[in-house]
Amino acid sequence: MKILFDINHPAHIHFFKNPAKKLLKKNCEVFFTSRDKDVTTSLLDQLGFEHTILSSQGSRGVGSLVLELFKRNYKLYDFVKKIRPNAMAAIGGTFIAHVGKITKTPSLVFYDTENAKLQNLITYPFASYVITPNCYNSWLPKGNIRYNGYHELSYLHPNYFRPNIDIAIKNGIKKNKKNIFIRLVSWKANHDIGEIGWDYEILEKMMEKYNDNYNIIISSEEKLPSDLNDYRYNGVVSEMHHVLAYSDLVIGESATVSSEAAVLGVPSIYAATTGRGYTDEQENKYRLVKNINNISWDLIKNNMDEILKMDINYFKRQREQLLNDTIDVAQFVADIIVEKAS
Protein backbone atom coordinates (compact mmCIF):
# COMPACT_ATOMS: atom_id res chain seq x y z
CA MET A 1 0.00 0.00 0.00
CA LYS A 2 1.33 3.43 -1.00
CA ILE A 3 0.40 6.56 1.00
CA LEU A 4 1.27 10.13 -0.02
CA PHE A 5 1.44 12.95 2.52
CA ASP A 6 1.34 16.47 1.05
CA ILE A 7 3.09 18.87 3.46
CA ASN A 8 2.62 22.64 3.23
CA HIS A 9 3.51 23.91 6.71
CA PRO A 10 5.86 22.85 9.55
CA ALA A 11 2.89 21.87 11.77
CA HIS A 12 1.74 19.41 9.09
CA ILE A 13 4.97 17.43 9.48
CA HIS A 14 4.42 17.03 13.20
CA PHE A 15 0.81 15.97 12.65
CA PHE A 16 1.70 13.21 10.19
CA LYS A 17 5.08 12.01 11.47
CA ASN A 18 3.73 9.47 13.97
CA PRO A 19 0.96 8.16 11.67
CA ALA A 20 3.63 7.81 8.95
CA LYS A 21 5.84 5.77 11.29
CA LYS A 22 2.88 3.53 12.14
CA LEU A 23 2.17 3.00 8.44
CA LEU A 24 5.80 2.12 7.78
CA LYS A 25 5.57 -0.56 10.49
CA LYS A 26 2.60 -1.98 8.57
CA ASN A 27 4.91 -2.27 5.52
CA CYS A 28 3.24 0.61 3.69
CA GLU A 29 5.29 2.75 1.32
CA VAL A 30 5.19 6.38 2.47
CA PHE A 31 5.90 9.42 0.26
CA PHE A 32 6.14 13.11 1.17
CA THR A 33 5.67 16.12 -1.10
CA SER A 34 6.65 19.43 0.46
CA ARG A 35 6.42 23.21 0.20
CA ASP A 36 9.36 25.53 0.86
CA LYS A 37 7.80 27.59 3.68
CA ASP A 38 9.42 28.77 6.91
CA VAL A 39 11.26 25.68 8.28
CA THR A 40 9.15 23.02 6.54
CA THR A 41 11.87 21.43 4.41
CA SER A 42 14.59 21.64 7.08
CA LEU A 43 12.27 19.99 9.60
CA LEU A 44 11.53 17.13 7.20
CA ASP A 45 15.28 16.74 6.72
CA GLN A 46 15.94 16.75 10.48
CA LEU A 47 13.32 14.04 11.01
CA GLY A 48 14.81 11.91 8.24
CA PHE A 49 11.87 11.99 5.83
CA GLU A 50 12.76 12.08 2.15
CA HIS A 51 10.54 14.52 0.28
CA THR A 52 9.96 16.17 -3.08
CA ILE A 53 9.56 19.97 -3.07
CA LEU A 54 6.69 21.01 -5.34
CA SER A 55 6.41 24.76 -4.63
CA SER A 56 7.50 27.61 -2.38
CA GLN A 57 5.64 30.29 -0.45
CA GLY A 58 5.24 33.47 -2.46
CA SER A 59 4.45 37.01 -1.40
CA ARG A 60 1.38 37.97 0.60
CA GLY A 61 -1.89 38.19 -1.32
CA VAL A 62 -4.47 36.28 -3.33
CA GLY A 63 -2.61 36.50 -6.67
CA SER A 64 0.46 34.72 -5.35
CA LEU A 65 -1.65 31.95 -3.79
CA VAL A 66 -3.65 31.42 -7.00
CA LEU A 67 -0.46 31.15 -9.04
CA GLU A 68 0.95 28.60 -6.60
CA LEU A 69 -2.33 26.66 -6.68
CA PHE A 70 -2.04 26.01 -10.43
CA LYS A 71 1.69 25.30 -10.35
CA ARG A 72 1.49 22.92 -7.41
CA ASN A 73 -1.58 21.09 -8.70
CA TYR A 74 0.23 20.45 -11.99
CA LYS A 75 3.36 19.12 -10.25
CA LEU A 76 1.37 17.04 -7.77
CA TYR A 77 -0.63 15.52 -10.65
CA ASP A 78 2.61 14.42 -12.32
CA PHE A 79 3.93 12.98 -9.05
CA VAL A 80 0.70 11.05 -8.36
CA LYS A 81 0.64 9.61 -11.88
CA LYS A 82 4.24 8.49 -11.34
CA ILE A 83 3.90 6.72 -7.96
CA ARG A 84 0.15 5.83 -8.09
CA PRO A 85 -0.63 6.00 -4.33
CA ASN A 86 -3.57 4.17 -2.78
CA ALA A 87 -4.50 7.32 -0.85
CA MET A 88 -3.33 10.87 -0.17
CA ALA A 89 -3.54 12.79 3.11
CA ALA A 90 -2.98 16.45 3.95
CA ILE A 91 -3.96 19.23 6.31
CA GLY A 92 -6.09 21.77 4.47
CA GLY A 93 -5.83 19.51 1.46
CA THR A 94 -6.67 21.76 -1.49
CA PHE A 95 -4.06 20.20 -3.75
CA ILE A 96 -4.77 16.57 -2.92
CA ALA A 97 -8.53 17.15 -3.22
CA HIS A 98 -8.20 18.53 -6.76
CA VAL A 99 -5.62 16.02 -7.95
CA GLY A 100 -7.39 13.15 -6.21
CA LYS A 101 -10.63 13.97 -8.00
CA ILE A 102 -8.90 13.95 -11.39
CA THR A 103 -6.84 10.80 -10.77
CA LYS A 104 -9.54 8.96 -8.78
CA THR A 105 -7.18 8.69 -5.80
CA PRO A 106 -8.85 8.83 -2.35
CA SER A 107 -8.02 12.12 -0.61
CA LEU A 108 -8.23 12.49 3.16
CA VAL A 109 -8.37 16.15 4.21
CA PHE A 110 -7.70 16.82 7.89
CA TYR A 111 -8.51 20.36 9.02
CA ASP A 112 -9.32 22.51 12.04
CA THR A 113 -9.39 26.09 10.70
CA GLU A 114 -12.88 27.51 10.26
CA ASN A 115 -11.90 30.94 8.95
CA ALA A 116 -10.13 29.56 5.86
CA LYS A 117 -13.41 30.08 4.03
CA LEU A 118 -12.04 30.43 0.50
CA GLN A 119 -9.73 27.45 0.87
CA ASN A 120 -12.49 25.28 2.32
CA LEU A 121 -14.89 26.35 -0.44
CA ILE A 122 -12.53 25.14 -3.17
CA THR A 123 -11.43 22.03 -1.25
CA TYR A 124 -14.23 20.30 0.64
CA PRO A 125 -16.50 19.61 -2.37
CA PHE A 126 -13.66 17.75 -4.13
CA ALA A 127 -12.26 15.80 -1.15
CA SER A 128 -13.09 12.14 -0.66
CA TYR A 129 -13.16 12.58 3.13
CA VAL A 130 -13.04 15.69 5.35
CA ILE A 131 -11.91 14.88 8.89
CA THR A 132 -12.14 17.42 11.73
CA PRO A 133 -12.06 17.63 15.53
CA ASN A 134 -15.44 17.63 17.28
CA CYS A 135 -14.91 21.28 18.24
CA TYR A 136 -14.75 22.40 14.59
CA ASN A 137 -17.41 25.08 14.31
CA SER A 138 -18.21 25.75 10.66
CA TRP A 139 -19.73 24.27 7.50
CA LEU A 140 -18.72 20.75 6.52
CA PRO A 141 -19.80 18.56 3.58
CA LYS A 142 -22.04 15.56 4.05
CA GLY A 143 -20.24 12.41 5.15
CA ASN A 144 -17.58 14.29 7.12
CA ILE A 145 -15.76 12.42 9.87
CA ARG A 146 -15.21 13.86 13.34
CA TYR A 147 -13.01 12.77 16.25
CA ASN A 148 -12.53 13.80 19.86
CA GLY A 149 -9.16 15.51 19.97
CA TYR A 150 -6.87 18.18 18.53
CA HIS A 151 -4.29 18.10 15.76
CA GLU A 152 -1.52 18.78 18.27
CA LEU A 153 -2.24 15.54 20.15
CA SER A 154 -0.97 13.61 17.13
CA TYR A 155 2.58 14.51 18.16
CA LEU A 156 2.41 15.88 21.73
CA HIS A 157 0.33 13.15 23.36
CA PRO A 158 2.42 11.47 26.11
CA ASN A 159 2.43 8.28 24.02
CA TYR A 160 4.79 10.08 21.63
CA PHE A 161 6.40 13.02 23.41
CA ARG A 162 8.17 13.36 26.75
CA PRO A 163 9.61 16.80 27.59
CA ASN A 164 13.32 16.80 28.38
CA ILE A 165 14.64 19.62 30.57
CA ASP A 166 18.22 19.23 29.31
CA ILE A 167 17.07 19.66 25.70
CA ALA A 168 14.95 22.65 26.74
CA ILE A 169 17.92 24.33 28.46
CA LYS A 170 20.18 23.64 25.49
CA ASN A 171 17.65 25.47 23.30
CA GLY A 172 17.18 28.55 25.48
CA ILE A 173 15.16 27.79 28.65
CA LYS A 174 16.54 29.27 31.91
CA LYS A 175 16.06 27.37 35.16
CA ASN A 176 16.58 30.41 37.40
CA LYS A 177 13.89 32.55 35.74
CA LYS A 178 10.34 32.24 34.52
CA ASN A 179 10.27 31.77 30.75
CA ILE A 180 7.97 33.51 28.26
CA PHE A 181 7.78 32.12 24.71
CA ILE A 182 6.47 34.50 22.01
CA ARG A 183 5.36 33.23 18.59
CA LEU A 184 4.90 35.63 15.66
CA VAL A 185 3.65 34.61 12.21
CA SER A 186 4.05 35.93 8.66
CA TRP A 187 0.30 36.23 7.81
CA LYS A 188 0.88 34.85 4.31
CA ALA A 189 -1.28 31.72 4.52
CA ASN A 190 -4.55 31.48 2.62
CA HIS A 191 -6.53 31.64 5.88
CA ASP A 192 -4.68 34.89 6.71
CA ILE A 193 -6.02 36.86 3.74
CA GLY A 194 -7.17 40.26 4.97
CA GLU A 195 -5.58 39.76 8.39
CA ILE A 196 -2.74 41.68 9.98
CA GLY A 197 -0.62 40.88 13.01
CA TRP A 198 0.74 42.71 16.01
CA ASP A 199 2.33 46.08 15.50
CA TYR A 200 5.86 46.62 16.75
CA GLU A 201 4.65 48.84 19.59
CA ILE A 202 3.02 45.89 21.38
CA LEU A 203 6.19 43.81 21.14
CA GLU A 204 8.27 46.78 22.29
CA LYS A 205 6.07 47.37 25.36
CA MET A 206 6.13 43.67 26.16
CA MET A 207 9.91 43.64 26.15
CA GLU A 208 10.10 46.79 28.29
CA LYS A 209 7.80 45.33 30.96
CA TYR A 210 9.00 41.73 31.17
CA ASN A 211 12.58 41.60 29.93
CA ASP A 212 14.30 42.33 33.27
CA ASN A 213 12.58 39.60 35.29
CA TYR A 214 11.78 36.95 32.70
CA ASN A 215 13.67 34.97 30.10
CA ILE A 216 12.05 35.84 26.77
CA ILE A 217 12.33 33.70 23.63
CA ILE A 218 10.85 34.90 20.33
CA SER A 219 10.05 32.56 17.45
CA SER A 220 9.14 34.53 14.33
CA GLU A 221 8.39 33.66 10.72
CA GLU A 222 9.37 37.20 9.77
CA LYS A 223 12.64 39.08 10.27
CA LEU A 224 12.81 40.72 13.69
CA PRO A 225 14.00 44.30 14.33
CA SER A 226 17.76 44.30 14.96
CA ASP A 227 17.36 45.18 18.65
CA LEU A 228 15.40 41.94 19.21
CA ASN A 229 17.72 39.54 17.39
CA ASP A 230 19.29 38.39 20.67
CA TYR A 231 15.89 37.03 21.75
CA ARG A 232 15.18 35.04 18.57
CA TYR A 233 14.81 31.30 18.99
CA ASN A 234 18.00 29.87 17.52
CA GLY A 235 17.59 26.35 18.81
CA VAL A 236 17.02 23.14 16.87
CA VAL A 237 13.71 23.40 15.02
CA SER A 238 12.62 19.85 15.82
CA GLU A 239 13.31 20.42 19.55
CA MET A 240 11.17 23.52 20.04
CA HIS A 241 8.40 21.60 21.80
CA HIS A 242 10.75 20.85 24.69
CA VAL A 243 11.13 24.62 25.07
CA LEU A 244 7.37 25.13 24.98
CA ALA A 245 6.87 22.43 27.62
CA TYR A 246 9.15 24.20 30.11
CA SER A 247 7.85 27.71 29.44
CA ASP A 248 5.68 29.42 32.05
CA LEU A 249 3.63 31.28 29.44
CA VAL A 250 3.27 31.05 25.67
CA ILE A 251 1.82 34.04 23.84
CA GLY A 252 1.51 34.99 20.22
CA GLU A 253 -0.36 35.09 16.93
CA SER A 254 -0.27 31.35 16.22
CA ALA A 255 -3.32 29.26 17.12
CA THR A 256 -1.28 26.10 16.53
CA VAL A 257 1.45 27.06 18.99
CA SER A 258 -1.15 28.14 21.55
CA SER A 259 -2.82 24.74 21.24
CA GLU A 260 0.56 22.99 21.45
CA ALA A 261 1.18 24.75 24.75
CA ALA A 262 -2.29 23.80 25.98
CA VAL A 263 -1.89 20.07 25.35
CA LEU A 264 1.49 20.28 27.14
CA GLY A 265 -0.16 21.89 30.18
CA VAL A 266 1.38 25.32 29.63
CA PRO A 267 -0.93 28.37 29.72
CA SER A 268 -1.11 30.31 26.48
CA ILE A 269 -2.56 33.52 25.12
CA TYR A 270 -3.74 33.48 21.51
CA ALA A 271 -3.87 37.15 20.50
CA ALA A 272 -5.20 37.47 16.96
CA THR A 273 -8.26 38.94 15.28
CA THR A 274 -9.54 35.54 14.14
CA GLY A 275 -10.47 32.69 16.47
CA ARG A 276 -10.48 28.91 16.25
CA GLY A 277 -12.95 26.33 17.52
CA TYR A 278 -10.17 24.39 19.21
CA THR A 279 -8.66 27.32 21.13
CA ASP A 280 -12.19 28.35 22.15
CA GLU A 281 -12.77 24.88 23.57
CA GLN A 282 -9.37 24.85 25.26
CA GLU A 283 -10.33 28.10 27.00
CA ASN A 284 -13.97 27.33 27.86
CA LYS A 285 -13.47 23.70 28.90
CA TYR A 286 -9.93 23.61 30.30
CA ARG A 287 -8.81 27.24 30.93
CA LEU A 288 -5.53 26.46 29.19
CA VAL A 289 -5.85 29.16 26.51
CA LYS A 290 -6.90 32.78 26.71
CA ASN A 291 -8.27 34.05 23.38
CA ILE A 292 -7.84 37.78 22.74
CA ASN A 293 -9.50 39.00 19.54
CA ASN A 294 -9.26 42.72 20.29
CA ILE A 295 -5.52 43.24 20.17
CA SER A 296 -4.56 45.97 22.63
CA TRP A 297 -1.52 46.22 24.88
CA ASP A 298 -3.57 46.80 28.05
CA LEU A 299 -5.64 43.67 27.46
CA ILE A 300 -2.60 41.57 26.65
CA LYS A 301 -0.65 42.90 29.66
CA ASN A 302 -3.49 42.30 32.12
CA ASN A 303 -3.91 38.70 30.99
CA MET A 304 -0.17 38.04 31.05
CA ASP A 305 0.08 39.38 34.60
CA GLU A 306 -2.87 37.29 35.76
CA ILE A 307 -1.50 34.06 34.30
CA LEU A 308 2.06 34.61 35.52
CA LYS A 309 0.79 34.91 39.10
CA MET A 310 -0.95 31.53 38.94
CA ASP A 311 0.44 28.19 40.10
CA ILE A 312 1.73 26.28 37.07
CA ASN A 313 0.49 23.05 38.66
CA TYR A 314 -3.09 24.19 38.10
CA PHE A 315 -2.48 24.04 34.36
CA LYS A 316 -0.84 20.61 34.66
CA ARG A 317 -4.00 19.31 36.32
CA GLN A 318 -6.12 20.85 33.56
CA ARG A 319 -3.97 19.06 31.01
CA GLU A 320 -4.68 15.72 32.70
CA GLN A 321 -8.39 16.37 32.29
CA LEU A 322 -7.86 17.23 28.62
CA LEU A 323 -5.94 13.99 28.04
CA ASN A 324 -8.66 11.99 29.79
CA ASP A 325 -11.27 13.50 27.48
CA THR A 326 -9.47 12.94 24.15
CA ILE A 327 -8.14 10.12 21.98
CA ASP A 328 -4.76 9.03 20.63
CA VAL A 329 -5.02 11.14 17.47
CA ALA A 330 -1.97 9.65 15.74
CA GLN A 331 -3.41 6.14 16.00
CA PHE A 332 -6.77 7.39 14.72
CA VAL A 333 -5.11 9.08 11.72
CA ALA A 334 -3.12 5.97 10.79
CA ASP A 335 -6.18 3.74 11.15
CA ILE A 336 -8.50 5.94 9.08
CA ILE A 337 -5.91 6.26 6.28
CA VAL A 338 -5.52 2.47 6.04
CA GLU A 339 -9.29 2.00 6.14
CA LYS A 340 -10.00 4.47 3.33
CA ALA A 341 -7.03 3.38 1.20
CA SER A 342 -8.06 -0.29 1.26
Describe the structure.
The strands form 2 sheets. A 7-stranded parallel beta sheet has the order 3-2-1-4-5-6-7, with helices on both faces. The protein has a 5-stranded parallel beta sheet with strand order 9-8-10-11-12, with helices on both faces. Strand 5 (107-110), helix 5 and strand 6 (129-133) form a beta-alpha-beta unit. The longest helix has 22 residues, at 62-83. The protein folds into 2 domains: 2-149 and 328-341, Glycogen Phosphorylase B (Rossmann fold, 3-Layer(aba) Sandwich), CATH 3.40.50.2000; 165-325, Rossmann fold (3-Layer(aba) Sandwich). It has 342 residues and is an alpha/beta fold. The protein has helices at 10-25, 40-46, 62-83, 94-103, 117-121, 153-156, 165-170, 200-210, 240-245, 255-263, 277-284, 297-308, 312-325, 329-341; strands spanning 2-6, 29-36, 52-56, 87-91, 107-110, 129-133, 145-147, 178-184, 214-220, 249-252, 268-271, 289-292. The protein has 14 helices and 12 strands. Helix content is 42%, strand content 18%.
